[in-house]
From TrEMBL:
One of its GO terms (cellular component) is chloroplast. Residues 83-264 form the Tr-type G domain. This is Translation factor GUF1 homolog, chloroplastic. Belongs to the TRAFAC class translation factor GTPase superfamily. Classic translation factor GTPase family. LepA subfamily.
Length: 680
């Protein structure tokens, strides 16, 4: 299964994937409720199976029941005293073995069996699996007996990608401890570091785990030292394990019990439960995943969401084993789910606090944030009739994704579409792909853009994410753009090429430290817009795959930016307009016009292709005219070939956008947009 990652996906995919036979997520997809096409019909049956189970309230006949058969009734809910509850998550860099380890923990505790996991959990997240990343998170409750005492271990999963770092921080806040999994044949990576810092901020007990010790190249001692030096974490009692071979799993389970503290017993206080995930289920409304911090919540309770200020009745509550299993009541320290006929995830956002309507908590839990889109692009259906379908699809996706923003946009070239805002590039890529795959829409996507702040002469500051709406030069005094801080971790051999890359992207060098003899950390500040390119691909290729990186948002800074327009046959093509730094305008203009010349089929007349700044043409190409009919080539020839050609032409036509008199194939847009991202 080749991961279909184009440069855009990979670019920000700080951890883009090469997981061809990636094993894992054992969760079902919160992204899968709206299903279409063959790909998803399997998901539908899975989902209804799960729904049927949890609503029927019967003991489901899943393979895990064989193991749990002797654990009757309430015991299936794993009720234990709070002192025997442990809530933890796993922090790991992509590919270091988080999912393999999670699977093993579930198997060893008899929570799920191997077969069930494959069929039931692994198949659920095609999109995630292809990308080899965990997009969204869920939880699983395990029963583990240690020194004759039953324990309830709640594993809360964290998404691995920086676009979702807010979600990561909320799931960490729902735990008392974390396993820090590091590949003993690799070492600490940038992404791991970022999440370790988040865990430390949340006061989590961190258990270092060195995975893949079965590999001949494993160097657990060296990697332990690396963790001690970089993270400052005591690794004298780090656990050596092989998730694949099942070595060290019992030690990990024992360490979870012994080293991670139990939750505080605050069941008497007014209810406060932290939402760490939610997804929209078309049958039951939003399913909310939460950790009870204080108090208790019962089935039927009238609950109140403190940030969205909405109230609902909790029709159903339960635990995740990892299938949903109904319960009557959940206490402080426990992790579970609830359904309350909530119509949109916006009402039950990650990070919000659930309390009782009748006995409200005084303060909500700290850390709630509104989602702020960082990256924008225009989405237009190739077929104009599909505009209402696109709107419906976006509305449905939004039910499940409070971070997705969109508003209608009209463009003379593209017709009706939407300008959409995303948390980051991976998020954007996921939404685009779901629209195409699950809703069968063929879309033209404009180049992703960041949000610029334009200071106008009249004193106003306007936010602009759409290059074609940038106020005229005469009306503005300056433009500010968002900056990020990036930290790259790399073997010392690649320091040069990576610094060159950052410098090319208008990066400002901040610092370099050797973290071990052979590895360095390099910090730069650079414009976010420069990362909305093939930055990550470049980082990987220039370091032969060895470097990793992490970025965080810094704030806005003034830059010398201008708008670059493209004209085809004298007509401005708005979707191809971009905002570029003035020093790059010529190079970008030249590259774009050349690429367009290659991609636009020749017409019956001569077509000039130009790049302009205002009225000034800075690069220009021209497409010469053709006269010959395409069919003349096989005139008198074989009729099936002729039919094929005609059919191909007709198909090509559908995917064309008329720019004035010129038909521009969608491929040209795509290629140019990609190029823009690369050159910019
Ligand atoms: N040799 C060896 N390979 C392992 C071990 N654990 C995991 N792997 C392999 O490493 C690769 C990545 O493992 P995953 O568990 O998918 O990694 P992950 O960190 O969960 O990655 P994401 O889910 O994509 O974030 C897979 O090919 C695993 O089979 C191990 O202990 N030894």
């Amino acid at each position: 299964m080749a991961a279909k990652i184009n440069s855009l996906a990979a670019l920000v995919s700080l951890q883009a994937s090469h997981h061809h036979h990636h094993s894992t997520p054992f969760y079902f997809s919160p992204f899968s409720p709206h299903l279409s096409t063959t790909l998803t019909s399997r998901r539908r049956s899975l989902r209804s199976a799960v729904v049927a189970r949890s609503t029927a309230g019967t003991q489901p006949k899943a393979p895990s029941d064989v193991d749990l058969a002797n654990v009757a009734g309430q015991d299936r809910l794993l009720k234990v005293p709070i002192s025997n509850i442990r809530n933890f998550c796993i922090i790991a860099h992509i590919d270091h073995g988080k999912s393999t380890l999670a699977d093993k923990l579930l198997q060893m505790t008899g929570t799920v069996q191997k077969r069930e996991m494959k069929e039931q959990f692994l198949d659920n997240m095609d999109l995630e699996r292809e990308r080899g990343i965990t997009i969204k998170l869920q939880a699983a409750r395990m029963r583990y007996v240690f020194e004759n005492e039953p324990y309830c271990l709640n594993l809360i999963d964290t998404p691995g990608h920086v676009d979702f770092s807010y979600e990561v921080s909320r799931s960490l806040a729902a735990c008392e401890g974390a396993l820090l999994v590091v590949d003993a044949s690799q070492g600490v990576e940038a992404q791991t570091l970022a999440n370790v810092y988040l865990a430390l901020e949340n006061n989590l007990e961190i258990i270092p785990v060195l995975n893949k010790i079965d590999l001949p190249g494993a160097e657990p001692v060296r990697v332990s030292q690396e963790i001690e030096e970089i993270v400052g974490l005591d690794c004298s009692n780090a656990i050596h394990c092989s998730a694949k071979e099942g070595i060290g799993i019992t030690e990990i389970l024992n360490a979870i019990v012994k080293r991670i503290p139990p939750p505080c017993d605050t069941a008497e206080r007014p209810l406060r439960a932290l939402i760490f995930d939610s997804y929209y289920d078309p049958y039951r409304g939003v399913i909310v995943y939460f950790r009870v911090i204080d108090g208790t919540v019962k089935k039927g309770d009238r609950i109140y969401f403190m940030a969205s200020k909405k109230d609902y009745f909790a029709d159903e509550i339960g635990v995740l084993s990892p299938n949903q299993l109904q319960a009557d009541e959940l206490y402080a320290g426990e992790v579970g789910y609830l359904a309350a006929s909530i119509r949109s995830v916006a009402d039950a956002r990650v990070g919000d606090t659930i309390t009782h309507y009748g006995r409200k908590a005084e303060n909500s839990l700290p850390g709630y944030e509104e989602a702020t889109p960082m990256v924008f692009c225009g989405l237009f259906p190739v077929d104009a009739d599909k505009f209402p379908d696109l709107r419906d699809a976006l509305e449905k996706l939004q039910l499940n994704d409070a971070a997705l923003k969109f508003e209608p946009e009209t463009s003379s070239a593209m017709g009706f579409g939407f300008r959409c805002g995303f948390l980051g590039l991976l998020h954007m890529e996921i939404i685009q792909e779901r629209l195409e795959r699950e809703y069968n829409l063929t879309l033209i996507t404009t180049a992703p853009s960041v949000v610029y702040r334009v200071n106008c002469i009249n004193g106003d500051t306007v936010e602009c994410s759409n290059p074609s709406l940038l106020p005229e030069p005469g009306k503005r005094t300056s433009i500010e753009e968002p900056y990020v801080k990036i930290e790259m971790l790399t073997p010392k051999d690649y320091i040069g090429p990576l610094m060159e890359l950052a410098q090319d992207r208008r990066g400002e060098f901040k610092e370099m430290k050797y973290i071990t003899e052979n590895r360095a950390s390099i910090t730069y500040e650079l414009p976010l817009a420069e990362m909305v390119g093939d930055f990550f691909d470049q980082l990987k290729s220039r370091s032969k795959g060895y470097a990793s990186m992490e970025y965080s948002f810094l704030g806005y800074k003034e830059s010398e930016l201008i708008k670059l327009d493209i004209q085809i046959n004298g007509e401005r093509v708005e979707p191809l307009a971009t905002i570029v730094h003035k020093d790059k305008a010529y190079a970008v203009g030249r590259a774009l016009t050349q690429k367009l010349k290659e991609l636009i089929p020749r017409q019956m007349f001569k077509v000039p292709i130009q790049a302009c700044i205002g009225a000034k043409v800075i690069a220009s190409e021209s497409l010469s005219a053709i006269r010959k009919d395409v069919l003349s080539k096989c005139y008198g020839g074989d009729i099936t070939r002729k039919k094929k050609l005609l059919k191909k032409q007709a198909e090509g036509k559908k995917r064309m956008k008329a720019i004035g008199k010129v038909d521009v194939p969608q491929e040209a847009f795509m290629a140019v947009l990609k190029l823009e991202k690369e050159v910019l």
